[in-house]
Write a structure and sequence with these properties.
- This protein is of the alpha+beta class.
- It has helices at about 1-25, 30-35, 40, 60-75, 105, 110-130, and strands at about 45-55, 80-90, 95-100, 140-145.
- The protein has 2 domains: about 1-35; about 45-145, Alpha-Beta Plaits (2-Layer Sandwich), CATH 3.30.70.100.
- The protein has 6 helices and 4 strands; from the N terminus they run H-H-H-E-H-E-E-H-H-E.
- Helix 4 packs antiparallel against helix 6.
- The chain is elongated and about 100 Å long.
């Protein structure tokens, strides 16, 4: 009887070790297995997020400059799907959401082209307001992934 109890105890330990070994060997990280690589993700829609300081007394000047310079230029860019412009009166802050067909198309636009439009925008604002620097400071620039 004593030998049977010892044998049962050893079998339970072996079974436990075998179970742990199987779990460790076949363990997969599901998130890693299903995660998209950046190369694959670049084909999905993405939203560019921009936050600017826009004082209420300069809001109309800012909106006019946005529509005069950025809107026509963006509409000619491959992958551009539209944008939304918001303004928070309390924070005196603008939020611009630019929709892109993919990150790859968005990021394929040369920064030199973006800088040319930004300079035209800023020069216009400075001339219109008779100031020496752009009053619409960029607070935040980021991207949002479209969720399914």
């Amino acid at each position: 009887m004593k030998k049977i109890l010892v044998l049962n105890k050893k079998l339970k330990r072996v079974w436990l070790l075998l179970t742990l070994l199987i779990v460790l060997l076949f363990q997969t990280n599901y998130q890693k297995a299903t995660a998209l690589t950046m190369e694959n993700y670049q084909s999905g829609q993405i939203v560019e997020e921009l936050r600017l300081s826009v004082p209420s007394e300069l809001k109309e000047t800012w909106l006019k400059a946005e529509k005069t310079f950025w809107e026509p230029w963006l509409s000619k860019q491959k992958g551009f799907m539209g944008r939304q412009i918001f303004w928070d009166k309390q924070k005196q802050e603008a939020l611009i959401l630019v929709n892109w067909e993919s990150k790859k198309l968005w990021k394929s636009i040369p920064m030199s082209e973006v800088n040319v439009i930004q300079k035209k925008f800023e020069d216009n604002v400075k001339t219109t307001l008779n100031v020496s620097q752009n009053p619409f400071e960029l607070i935040y620039e980021g991207e949002l992934d479209k969720q399914k």
